[in-house]
Each structure stands twice: as structure tokens, then as C-alpha cells.
Amino acid sequence: MKKKLTKILLPVAGAVIVFLGVYVLLGLYYRQSFAVNTWVNDIYCTGSTIEEINGQLVGQSVLPDLTVVDCDGQEYQIKGETIDLTPDYSSALRKIMKQRANYDWTGSLAASYQVTIEPESYRWNNDKLIEAFHRLAFVSAEKDIPTDTKVLYSEEDGYTFYDGKRNRLNFETAIAVIQNSIGEKQWKIDLADYGCYEDISDSEEDQRQRELWVRLQEYTDCGIVYDMGAEQLTFSPADMASFLEKNADNMPVVDETGAFVVRKDFVDAWVDRLGELYNTAEKERDFLATRGEIVKVTYNTYGTLLDLDAEKEYLYPAIVGKVSEVHTPVYLKEAYFRGQNDIGPTYVEVDMGEQRMYVYQDGELVIETDIVTGNAKRKWNTPEGVNYIYKKQKNRILRGPNYATPVKYWLPVVGNIGIHDAKWRKEFGGDIYLTNGSHGCINTPTEAVAQLYELAEVGMPVVMFY
Q: pTM for this one?
């Protein structure tokens, strides 16, 4: 009986021993590799090592790009692939394996363990990172920017100052900041926030250039304002620089006291240019007629003429003496409206081709009427040109060869030619002037000329053309 029982128990005991051995061995095995039913980021990990799963996770990872922001807020990208950026999941995987390690591995058969993890660190090729950084456009441009200071001159801008010492990019600091940011998994790096821009110390020559620039700024800060009516003219830095005597390098010359040398002939040239800009007497100009066409008109009795000699005598000592004031120029002839467009917004327009008269006040059309001008057949044509109302009279008798005509309103504009009422006319406009025109005056309906008389002032421009 014992022999029979022994025969039965020995195989059972052997099977148990084998099972226990296998159980223990698998328990030991799953302490060195991932346990049964373990899934990480949808990868089946059972039986695999940390290195194997890390490799698979790296293979399916989407690499981030570095965004580098310069001091102007512009963004530049460094692709992760270009610097061999590699994520490392090992630390997170090690925690999972340790958590799942258990000799009783059979407990994992019933339910799967699924988890999603992120890389806890990254590796990269530092040489490639440095190379990629130096290829960024703003970094390449920074290398080409001179690091000195210099006073510069051009006729257009006058004196300007180049400062290559301020806010310069420190390449080594920037690279160290980027490396640290990658280590902290920070993918957008604003270099200005991390002190990557700094000032470079001045040399003695830099200091001399700065001192010269300060003196030039003080000189070019002119307080004279020319009151030209519609325009207020200030002296630009280029204007002020143009007055200075300069050496071969266009730097200002100083006298024995150390003061800049202001050339009177250069100042006089500015006054001459002012006259070219504002003097209109006897000049021709374009005029936009109410009928919509641009016509050529010549200043006749009207216009502006500056006293250039008086202005030259004023301006040179005023600049040298650092005068600060609003200056109204002296006129030999002053128009009703001061400004480059000295006809201005208030004027009388006599369109003799259309036989119409228009009166504008502050840019608004206030009178529009038919008229009759000089008799063309008898060569009594009303003269063209820009003139002005030089007198206002009521109840005047107009006299000429073989006539003496009383009028209620008389507004002479050039010689004995003027605007007046004509009660003897029943019609105005059209072609009347060709055969039955005036002796040269501008015949106007009484109601219209009465209205003009009330608003007109002596000096108001009258633009006359065909």
C-alpha cells in the first residue's frame, strides 16, 4: 500500500515542485522586465525591458521644436530633428516596473494595466544645437553689426548717431539659456527675459563720439519757428547741420573757443530757398477751376514777396545766439492769405470762358452767378491773371471815353477794371460778351454783387481766366 501511495505522491510532488519553480522563476523574470498585461502609451510591454520599451516610445514620439524669441519679439524655430533631440522615458518606465514588480505575477492575468507617460528628460547633440543657433537669421545678422559708436552725416538726415554698444546679444549666454531650457522642457525661450542682451563697455573713442553727439543735439535743437501763416516752419536737424562748416569727413569744424562754426552763406542759402518756396509774385501756377479743369494762371497784381535781405540779417545771428521764438517774416508784398497757397480758401473766381463768377468763403461756395466780361469783338477783353480787390465803393460813376455810367457797387481789381452791377442788362452769361460785352469790367447781377460787396475785404484775391 505504501509503495502504491509513494508511486502516486512522487509525480504529484514533482509537478508541484516544477510549478513552484516556474512560478518563482517567472516572478523573478517579471522583476527584470514588465509584468503580464502591462501597456504603456498603447505599447504592449509584457516581458520587455526598460531599454526596449524606451526605444519603442522614442520611435513613435513627435519631437517638439524650439522657439527662440529675440529682443524685438520676433520668433525663430530650431527643429528638434536638427539637433538630434531625443526623449528619454527611462525614469518613468522604471517607476512603472517597480510598481508592478511582484512575485505573485498571476494577479495581473485578470486585468490589464494601461498608462500614458511623458518623457521626463531629453538628450541632444550640443554641437548641432550651437550650429543651429548660429544659423538663425537674427544671430547671423547680429554678427554683421559693428560694435562701435559713431556720429554719421547725410544731407538728407543731417547728423545721426550709431550706437553699436547697446543691447547686444551675448552668444554664450544665449546658448547656455537654451540648453537649460531644453533640460527643463521649456520650448519657447525669450532671450531678453534671461539677460542674453547686454551693453558693451565704451572705448575712449566711443566716449568722444558720444560727447560730440550730445553737443550736436544741443546745437540742432533750434527754437526758431517761422510763422508762414498756413504753415509753421521749424528747422530740422538736417537744416541745422547744413549751416555748419565741415571738414573732409563731414564732421563739424570748431573755432578757437571750441564752438561749432556756423556759415552765414549757408544760412543765407536757406533763406533763398524759403523765397523760392513762398514768393509767388509774377509767377505762374496751376489752379483748379470750379468747372473741374486745371488752368494756368499768372500772378498779376496779387502775390507774396518776402524781404529776403531782412530775413538774412535776422536769421544768422538768431541761430548763432540760440534764439527761441516764433518769427513772422518781413514782406515786401503780403498776400491776403499767408501760406504756400496764398490764394487760400477765400477768393473770387472769374471764369471768363464760361462767363461765370464763383465766390468762395473759407472753402465754401457762397455765390455763383452769370456775368458779362469785356467785349471780345472790340478787343476790350477782360485781362487774365491773379489780382485782388483793392477798393470798395458804393454809388460810383464809372467814366470813360464817351460814357459815364452810375453803379451801386464798385469793386476794382486791376487798374480801372472791376466788378460792378449793370442794371441796364436784362441777361447775363452765354455768348453776350463776344459782341455786346463790357469795356473790360465784370458786369454782375445787382443781387449777386451786393452780396459780394458785403462779404468782400480789400486784398481778397480774384482769379481771372478763360
A: 0.72
